[in-house]
Amino acid sequence: xxxxxxxxLAVDEFDFEGGWLAVSHQLKRIRGKYxxxxxxxxxxxxxxxxxxxxxxxxxxxxxxEPVDVTLPWxxxxxxxxxxxxxxxxxxxxxxxxxxxxxxxxxxxxxAAGVTPAADAGARYVxxxxxxxxxxxxxxxxxxxxxxxxxxxxxxxxxHSDPGFTLRTYTHLLPSSExxxxxxxxxxxxxxxxxxxxxxxxxxx
Length: 204
Description:
This protein is of the alpha+beta class and 204 residues long. It contains seven helices and seven strands, in the order H-E-E-E-E-E-H-E-E-H-H-H-H-H. It has a three-stranded antiparallel β-sheet with strand order 1-2-5. A hairpin with a 7-residue loop joins strand 6 and strand 7.
């Protein structure tokens, strides 16, 4: 999910029983004012919700009660809509992106040694590759490494064109020669196992 989609995540978008998450809107800043709006490109989508992630989100909701936030829809003068947000900022309001990036995300990266610490009174070094968008790239790499298709990944990321997803993440695809070696190795491993069953009375 993109940063705005994460901060706009609402309770009613979860289907814990079915294992799905609906990405139906985002928190967006327009001319200094925050609004709720459709995801980038209007790409509303459903994303598989792994059990491990569902557990973390349930635990988070128990410790930090979701909050009702009312904002204009799509434009600063649009009709007001209310969403029960999973992640909140100060004073029970929505997360302010600039505050989160400067006072939470970047300090966490520095503490982990990913980026240099900021000098006293100075701002952290700004680098696109260290933004929250990097989490989308990580997600893509995990799925591709596990054999997920480009078309499915494109749907989950909210891309309108699988070709764009392929061009963006082709460097993360397992090499064809690596897949060839693994496929033949697994074939011979399976064949050898069948030809040489464990001796009677011995554990396999």
